Amino acid sequence: MIKNLLFAFLMILPASLLAQDQKASLTNTGVTPVVYDLSDKPASEIYTKVIEWINLKYNSPKDVLKGGIQDKFVSLNGFMDNAWSYSTLGMRTSYGITYKLDIDIKENRYRASFILNDFTHPTQAVYYGYESMFKKDGSVKKVYIEGHKELEASINTILQDLYKHINGESSRDDEW
Known about the structure:
The chain is an alpha+beta fold and 176 residues long. The chain has one domain (23-166): Alpha-D-Glucose-1,6-Bisphosphate, Chain A, domain 4. The chain contains four helices and seven strands. It is globular.
């Protein structure tokens, strides 16, 4: 009996650790979708947690939520200020992003597809997108290396926050 429990624990542990370490990456074709495996989470619970997360994290959840199918799919449009920065003439300028986040839900897993829409700046128009960060061969241009890292980190912060909420690791302080 103990051997069976130990075996089951050892089989589940790597899957849960792998899911926590999964990260999206930004390439010249966009952000790679990430599939998160969740043991013993029915689609209905994942869907409920996604909607709950949207209601907790966004100022206007009704405006952010763009579509959904009960227990199968959720789509939202969001923005993040100071998502990445760029150095010009020795001065760092921060940019925000607008994005679409599509969440496909199945039993015990979900896929997060993060689509970058636009870069934003509070005082100037921005006429380029993430594609300008890359050379023709797909590598990151030297001038954007730091900004690219920052942008990937910002995207993964959003995705990891959602993952933690679905797993009951919410950062919200309910002890008051």
